[in-house]
């Protein structure tokens, strides 16, 4: 079928909306008419570093929409269902079987290879391949093919702009706190970076009863949002080494949990200084190589975590986040700025210049 998609032709090149062809669903695939798609830093970092030989390429991995068709072997999903698309996983490896599909043995092949696990791509133009199946979806498009495993049914009345970010960024931040850290009420939580992932971690910390919740973020407007969402304090990293002293003071001698979304070597060094003995330091950001003073890790008994996708099982966790949103305890909508699909480059600029915390593309 003929669809419209935001295509990238060169590494780091612009997103250009144009027509492409999409295959019909294979036996376990689901055809979804996309109603909204979040823009995530992973889309931008992947686009910048994507191999030229795997271009042109369609990115997008926070899609939501309505099912239009399903493959012959699909069960539990039917045309007309409203769904969120999330990361793909095999369902058969030890990590998937244990309820940790974010660490699937086939994660890269299924999500970041420029195609399906067998190397094929569902997209083409004029008979030439257009690479796709990014995170099992490539949802910067009017329609996407997903697998039944990365398609989660949602209530039909959930606003698409709220639903879309649940598939990755919101799931990552909230899941880091609720699935991996599982903090005790009253334990201190510091979040470094108040983008979509960081503010989702803040909201999850408030839900879990963390006290205090403290944010470190350079953009003043985002610091204000963090406080409005329940953070007791929001600090500017421009204060330099004074940040460590401030965090030690606010957390009564050191934070029990610190979640970093920046992968900044400078901020991670400060985080280690602000952590109490036997505290948890969680890395969620994709960035450059960082190093740690091993003696500091050992002497403090620091527990270092690497977390992707919030260590979530989306089929279980996304409905939990929706329930919290409906209860008024997880106001995802306050992070969202919407853009028409055709204005994807404006959405990207908003993310890069800090004016949009979570840009979401909306489609008719």
From TrEMBL:
PROSITE patterns: ADH_ZINC
EC number: 1.1.1.90
Protein's name in the database: Aryl-alcohol dehydrogenase
Keywords in alphabetical order: Metal-binding, Oxidoreductase, Zinc
Domain Enoyl reductase (ER): 12-361
Record flagged with keyword Ribosomal protein: no
GO molecular function list: aryl-alcohol dehydrogenase (NAD+) activity; zinc ion binding
The family this protein is said to belong to: Belongs to the zinc-containing alcohol dehydrogenase family.
Organism superkingdom: Bacteria
Named cofactor requirement(s): Zn(2+)
Pfam annotation, one family: ADH_zinc_N
EC category name: oxidoreductase
